[in-house]
Amino acid sequence: MLEVDIQGIRGNSSALFQFRALPGITAIVGPSGAGKTSLLRALAGLDVPTSGRISLNETPLTGAPEMRDIGMVFQEPRLLPHLNIRSNIELGRQSIVSIDQLAHDLGINALLDRMPHGLSGGEKQRVMIARALFGSPKLMLFDEPLSAIDPRLKTDLIALVRQHFADAKIPVLYVTHQMDEAAQLANELIAIDAGQIVAQGPIAETMAKLDGAAFFENGITSVLNGRVAAIDKRFDLAQIAIGEQLVDLPARNMAVGEEVRLRVWARDVLLAKERLVGVSARNQLLGAVETISMTDQAHADILVRVEGSLVRARVMCKTVSDMEMAVNQPIFVVFKSASVE
Amino acid sequence: MSAEIWSIVLLSLKVSAFALIWAVPIAFGLAYLLARKQFWGKQLLSAVIMLPLVMPPVVTGLVLLYVFGPLGPVGLVLAPLGVSFAFNAAGASLAAGLVALPLIVRPIRLSLEAVDPNLDEALAVAGRSRLQRFSMLYLPMALPGVVAGGILGFAKAMGEFGATITFVANIPGETQTFSLAIHSALQKFDGGETVLLLSIVSILISVIAVLGSEYLLNWLQKRMLGEQVVRHA
């Protein structure tokens, strides 16, 4: 377990970070300049905080970066241009990890004897992940590793990170300014802004508490956790159980019993006082209004509690008054599509 | 070619080679300090290193004489150890290396300054110590600079005249390198042939050195394929 309690980092003198991270992926999300990179640099020992303490598995994490047993993947790949990929992963270190197995798992076994210059950004970041894993780190840090990657390749790399780190036995901190990435990867979320933690906790709950464009560049989303209950092969549909209720989504490669995470865009959500009939949107979940907040003169955000998760819907203020919405009132959340991880 | 010419060629090569042997490591250290460290008096050090390039070589020779000569402070300390720079090839190497030093420091400094400090950080996080980072990152990345600086310094050492003649005089077989031998031959009534031969040989050696450095730099660049290699010369 990682325990952080630090104040003041270079370039961010007012920074104040206090949190714990358990094994598995914790996403750290915040707008540019929020202090995300400063935080990771302090953990890696590249910058020294003014005061406070960091401990990993109940041992203080201090001293030079090379003494800390940390794996780090930076925004841009940092490969030595004069060494081939194998040497760039090994860096002259001994390891219990087999480099060939590692390269195979990360899909870079064909690259081991090549020099870094001809590799794509995505391939280089895979090599950086291999380098980090080769050192059997006790803490893994990702500093916006996809920011310089071709958008088409991001999905692959996100899947790879999830596959290798979601069930990791070490804490993995994944910094990003894209809530989408966080929602696809992490179980825990720490949202930071202006050098302070503004929200932290399980990702679905924490995301629902956040609002504002600062955290959601690609639109505000909510997360619902579910399990695949059945697959309808004829229509390639998966029935996903969210608590006691069911929704239908394209099955793609889902398997019965699989845990899935649905992301629903606030702008795609309709609210209805009664179950709708004769509409094309297939998914209706019964919940209760948790909070109603005006975002501006025209819009309001409604948080609806559905089976323990919170779903955010963005509607017109006039709708709120026309529908006579009130806290705790039962309401149907209707959505057409969701992205599934 | 006569034995006399051969001995001059060999002596010149030997003096220049020994000049490089001591000057390149020191130049590397100085270049590393100037490129990567912040300290008080950095500008001053940088200027002092450049001095032999801009000072009249005769004055450089005089300074050497006063410091390393038999009565100089360093000369007096070294004498009991059996080390002497007075009027011998070691002294000629000292003079040639000192004059070449600024030319060696500069390209190494430039190539070290071009090393991305982010790579150093990445190696540190991966558990590599300061020394390991030095040999893994800075040393290989500075290699093109070392080659360019070494060749420049070698050429400068081969042609050294003023500081050498002032510090260790013009003694055949001991301190009489190319330039000094050409100078002596010019004074002789029948020295024309020697002057011509020595000049041709020195031009040949220079051409070989420059071609060799081009070849080496190209090879280094190919090794990093596509990566921009800082080149000077």
Automatic annotation (TrEMBL), chain A:
<comment type="similarity">
    <text>Belongs to the ABC transporter superfamily.</text>
</comment>
<dbReference type="InterPro" id="IPR017871">
    <property type="entry name" value="ABC_transporter-like_CS"/>
</dbReference>
<dbReference type="GO" id="GO:0005524">
    <property type="term" value="F:ATP binding"/>
</dbReference>
<dbReference type="InterPro" id="IPR050334">
    <property type="entry name" value="Molybdenum_import_ModC"/>
</dbReference>
<dbReference type="InterPro" id="IPR008995">
    <property type="entry name" value="Mo/tungstate-bd_C_term_dom"/>
</dbReference>
<dbReference type="Pfam" id="PF00005">
    <property type="entry name" value="ABC_tran"/>
</dbReference>
<feature type="domain" description="ABC transporter">
    <location>
        <begin position="1"/>
        <end position="219"/>
    </location>
</feature>
<dbReference type="InterPro" id="IPR003439">
    <property type="entry name" value="ABC_transporter-like_ATP-bd"/>
</dbReference>
<keyword id="KW-0547">Nucleotide-binding</keyword>
<dbReference type="InterPro" id="IPR027417">
    <property type="entry name" value="P-loop_NTPase"/>
</dbReference>
<dbReference type="InterPro" id="IPR003593">
    <property type="entry name" value="AAA+_ATPase"/>
</dbReference>
<keyword id="KW-0067">ATP-binding</keyword>
<protein>
    <submittedName>
        <fullName>Molybdenum import ATP-binding protein ModC</fullName>
    </submittedName>
</protein>
<keyword id="KW-0813">Transport</keyword>
<dbReference type="InterPro" id="IPR005116">
    <property type="entry name" value="Transp-assoc_OB_typ1"/>
</dbReference>
<dbReference type="Pfam" id="PF03459">
    <property type="entry name" value="TOBE"/>
</dbReference>
UniProtKB/TrEMBL annotation, chain B:
<feature type="transmembrane region" description="Helical">
    <location>
        <begin position="6"/>
        <end position="35"/>
    </location>
</feature>
<comment type="similarity">
    <text>Belongs to the binding-protein-dependent transport system permease family. CysTW subfamily.</text>
</comment>
<dbReference type="Pfam" id="PF00528">
    <property type="entry name" value="BPD_transp_1"/>
</dbReference>
<keyword id="KW-0472">Membrane</keyword>
<keyword id="KW-0812">Transmembrane</keyword>
<feature type="domain" description="ABC transmembrane type-1">
    <location>
        <begin position="9"/>
        <end position="213"/>
    </location>
</feature>
<feature type="transmembrane region" description="Helical">
    <location>
        <begin position="195"/>
        <end position="217"/>
    </location>
</feature>
<keyword id="KW-0500">Molybdenum</keyword>
<dbReference type="InterPro" id="IPR035906">
    <property type="entry name" value="MetI-like_sf"/>
</dbReference>
<keyword id="KW-1133">Transmembrane helix</keyword>
<dbReference type="InterPro" id="IPR011867">
    <property type="entry name" value="ModB_ABC"/>
</dbReference>
<keyword id="KW-0813">Transport</keyword>
<comment type="function">
    <text>Part of the binding-protein-dependent transport system for molybdenum; probably responsible for the translocation of the substrate across the membrane.</text>
</comment>
<protein>
    <recommendedName>
        <fullName>Molybdenum transport system permease</fullName>
    </recommendedName>
</protein>
<dbReference type="InterPro" id="IPR000515">
    <property type="entry name" value="MetI-like"/>
</dbReference>
<keyword id="KW-1003">Cell membrane</keyword>
<feature type="transmembrane region" description="Helical">
    <location>
        <begin position="81"/>
        <end position="105"/>
    </location>
</feature>
<feature type="transmembrane region" description="Helical">
    <location>
        <begin position="47"/>
        <end position="69"/>
    </location>
</feature>
<keyword id="KW-0997">Cell inner membrane</keyword>
<feature type="transmembrane region" description="Helical">
    <location>
        <begin position="137"/>
        <end position="155"/>
    </location>
</feature>
